[in-house]
Every structure is written in structure tokens, then in C-alpha cells.
Amino acid sequence: AYKMARDQGIDWQSLYDVNMGGAARSGSLERTIPPAILGNYRGNLFSVANCAKDLGYYVEAARAQGADTTIASALRDYFAKASQELGGETMLSELLKPTT
After folding, report:
1. Which of 27, 36, 31 is nearest to 2 (CA)?
2. Which has the closest alpha carbon to 52: 5, 11, 86, 10?
């Protein structure tokens, strides 16, 4: 959401303030976004490789129970691709870093 917000010219601080007042509030949001607003994209030190791995575990368990894994599988694939393209040691929060 924050990458899309940047592309649309939405101020991250304003979006964060709205998020913190509602159901989107979370520890991950609190660890990741305030440092990113200040230009530090290593605020959440969890690698994309670990994210893909953990989502893979979830997909396996969900499939074993007959649950729909469409969204989880798409997320797992996204983070697996990021791991391959950027390196598995890339931190999740570094995906917010502007590419230009």
C-alpha cells in the first residue's frame, strides 16, 4: 500500500496516521513505516527469503486442510521472486525503497 501511495503522490505520514487509528495498526506497521518515512528502509529486519519460506509453510498447511491458498500462494510467489531478483538477504522493509 505504501509503494502504491508513493506512486500516487500520497504522503506516507498522512497514510500512516490514518492506519494507526484503525484496524491496520500492527507491530509490523509500527516497526516498518516510521523509519521509512525518514528514509531508513531497514526498519523491519525480516528477510524476503524468510517471508517466502514462512508463507510456503502456511500454504502447505492450508492446502493439507483443504483451504483456499490463492492469496497466500501469490504472496509466497511475490516474495520468492523478490528473493531471487534482489537476493534473499534483502529485508522486507527494503522493498519500500524508491527505485528511481
Report:
1. 36
2. 86
List CB contacts of 68: < 8 A, sequence separation 6 or more. Answer: 62
Residue in the structure block whose three cell numbers are 528511481: 100
Q: Cβ of 28: how many Cβ atoms within 10 Å?
A: 12
pLDDT tens-place string over residues 34-66 = 999 999 999 889 999 999 999 999 999 999 999
| pTM (2 d.p.) | 0.80
CB 54 within 8 A of CB 92: no
Give 34-41 contacts, CB < 8 A, sequence gap 24+: 35/93, 36/2, 36/12, 36/93, 36/96, 37/12, 37/13, 41/91, 41/93, 41/94, 41/96, 41/97
Rounded to a whole number of angstroms, the CA Rg of the chain reads 15
